[in-house]
Write a structure and sequence with these properties.
The chain is α/β, with parallel strands linked by helices and 315 residues long. The protein contains 9 helices and 11 strands. Strands 1-2-3-4-5-6 form a 6-stranded mixed sheet. It has a 5-stranded mixed sheet with strand order 7-8-9-10-11, with helices on one face. One of its GO terms (molecular function) is hydrolase activity.
């Protein structure tokens, strides 16, 4: 096992545990038109399954005068064909560009399918670097879930990664910005911003309807800061990484308030050297967030991981 894979192993394990906690799942992507020619594809909030081709996340697409811009490509070749079918229900225009917002498998492992058809893969350099580390481990873990439906899937990344923390793109007449606001849920995660329509595809910066998951690689204070940077942009419509389409007020209730709570409560406890087991026990009930899906399964582990993250930062 290479050092890079060893470094990511705890993160990958945690990702898969998080994604297996909700019992409800759906096989189909729900298409939501959020503005003229702008669509969200809403996946189930439950676990990866062969039935949903591991598409338990949200994606999106923009129909332009010159073709389709796809936002994230799914976890496999089979999943990519399902995404293509969802696009084809709206337009026969070719998918010419695929933007990756992140490095978790369901954000990018469908790239190869679309690249074979001539699509340009677009991602920030920091996102591509994380993808390069994780492609092999992702495929090995997906094999246990998808079986034969993983056949033909290859970890293809953007051939010309974009440097820096932001990029302004003019694709088919659509003005699109790709933004990195800081490490949050996962290193290298980015957002897709449509400034004219004030629509934001948040990637895993924002979770709606379900509790966010803190991973070993998550940086909670950076996540909080990135959320508030996003807030300052004043988007009118948000397509979250998971959950239904919403607005900034809902994002604050479902994600921002919880991040603020973790920093205020768990951060203060860690700064006071309160023992971790006592912190978890004392903060285990947080009724203001218990309405969110996955609360019972994730909340205590979120406290634990946030505490360890703050501890690392204090070293």
């Amino acid at each position: 096992m290479t050092p890079s894979i060893q470094r990511w192993l705890p993160v990958l394990t945690a990702c898969w545990l998080l994604l297996g906690v909700t019992l409800v799942s759906a096989a189909d992507l729900k298409r939501v038109e959020v503005a003229k020619d702008v669509y969200a594809l809403i996946g189930p909030t439950g676990p990866r399954t062969a039935e949903n081709d591991a598409l338990n996340c949200n994606l999106g697409f923009i129909v332009t005068q010159q073709g389709v811009v796809l936002i994230d490509s799914g976890a496999s070749r089979a999943g990519a064909t399902r995404i293509e079918d969802a696009v084809r229900a709206v337009t026969e225009a070719p998918i010419r560009w695929v933007i990756n917002t992140g490095s978790q498998d369901h954000r990018w492992l469908g790239n190869g399918y679309f690249a074979e058809q001539g699509a340009e893969i677009i991602a920030l350099r920091r996102t591509v670097e994380t993808q390069a580390d994780l492609g092999g481990p992702h495929l090995r873990r997906l094999g246990a879930v998808l079986g034969d439906r993983l056949e033909g899937t290859e970890p293809v990344t953007a051939s010309k990664p974009l440097p820096g923390d932001q990029a302004s793109l003019a694709l088919g007449g659509a003005q699109i910005e790709l933004l990195y606001l800081g490490n949050a849920h996962f290193p290298g995660d980015a957002l897709v911003w449509l400034p004219t329509q004030r629509i934001l595809f948040t990637g895993d910066l924002v979770y709606l309807d379900r509790l966010l998951g803190v991973l070993p690689a998550s940086r909670v204070r950076e996540w909080q800061a990135a959320f508030h940077r996003m807030e300052a942009m004043k988007p009118e419509v948000l397509v979250p990484g998971h959950g239904g389409v919403g607005d900034l007020a809902k994002a604050q209730r479902d994600t921002g308030d919880y991040l603020d709570w973790l920093v205020a409560e768990v951060g203060a406890a860690q700064a006071d050297w309160e023992p971790l087991d006592e912190v978890v026990a004392r903060l285990a009930e947080a009724p203001q967030f218990s309405r969110l899906e996955n609360f019972d399964a994730l909340h205590k582990s979120n406290i634990n991981r946030a505490y360890l993250d703050f501890e690392r930062g204090a070293d």
